[in-house]
Write a structure and sequence with these properties.
7 helices, 4-stranded mixed sheet, alpha/beta, about 280 residues, 2 domains, Spore Coat Polysaccharide Biosynthesis Protein SpsA, Chain A
Length: about 280
């Protein structure tokens, strides 16, 4: 954590920390931190993003960077992201390229790009319109709209970044790619390979939210068909592969129980944290 705080303070950027667990004693937090937020319990990534963005907006900041503590940034990150916003007037979120540390292949991840009426997984060109991006490393403008109102806090975790981007796009705002920035980030617990594709494994706890939130968005959000088709493919793939790659019978049946619970909760709209 100290590394990422040091990086942003070195860029003359104010740093807010949100703790999704018990907030440490003040003497354990770097003096460089400008604000510490969080209720002391796990309220989920979605509500953390809402609170951070609202805090920044209420304190008259023009931009906010959303970041996990383990994401690594190039020195030119702030400069390049501001340059992207100077190039395009319609932009609300700028998304960098990123390397998945769990793959170790040295290749930036392809991203889902908007190509006319299609959502295409490809290597974006600079300034290309994106369907969505991962939240860590997002550079968000607070100048035009109340951005926090576009985040669904009840999703808790998983598909939060997709839903955030799609809600903005549905209102006519843009998400654009910055090819001049490549981050290092770890996605998931590990990457498993099959003859069809690579699969990022998650814990059974995360499987619950991945399935519940995907189905909830498909059932109750008014996004276009390409977004819901994307979620349907991801949902079916995740259910199949998460069961196939279970390490033991105990894990398999635990996943099966939580996946069944997720399907039921999505239909009855039981959202928020898992209880």
């Amino acid at each position: 954590m100290n590394e990422i705080v040091g990086f942003f303070k070195g860029q003359d950027v104010d740093v807010f920390l949100y703790f999704n667990s018990q907030v440490p004693e003040p003497e354990l937090i770097s003096n460089a931190v400008d604000a510490v937020l969080g209720s002391g319990q796990n309220d989920g990534i979605a509500k953390a993003h809402q609170e951070l963005i609202s805090y920044a907006n209420n304190n008259n900041y023009e931009y906010i960077v959303i970041s996990d503590q383990d994401t690594k940034y190039p020195d030119t990150y702030i400069y390049e992201m501001l340059s992207l916003f100077n190039e395009y007037d319609d932009i609300v979120i700028g998304c960098p390229g990123w390397l998945n540390n769990n793959k170790n292949d040295g290749e930036p991840e392809k991203q889902y790009c908007l190509n006319g009426s299609k959502m295409v997984l490809e290597t974006p060109y600079h300034g290309q319109l994106l369907s969505h991006g991962i939240s860590s490393g997002m550079f968000v403008s607070l100048k035009k709209i109340d951005v926090a109102s576009f985040i669904d806090g009840e999703l808790f975790i998983d598909w939060v970044d997709n839903d955030f981007c799609w809600s903005l796009i549905s209102e006519g705002y843009s998400i654009r790619y910055n090819k001049n920035v490549i981050l290092n980030h770890s996605l998931g617990d590990a990457v498993k390979k099959s003859i069809f594709s690579n699969f990022t494994t998650r814990s059974p706890f995360r499987d619950y939210f991945i399935v519940r939130n995907a189905l909830y968005i498909m059932l109750y959000k008014k996004y276009n068909l390409k977004c819901k088709r994307y979620l349907m493919i991801k949902l079916v793939t995740h259910i199949v592969f998460s069961l196939v790659f279970s390490k033991s019978f105990k894990t398999f049946f635990n996943r099966l129980f939580l996946l069944s619970k997720a399907l039921y909760h999505s239909v009855i709209r039981k959202m928020g944290r898992l209880s």
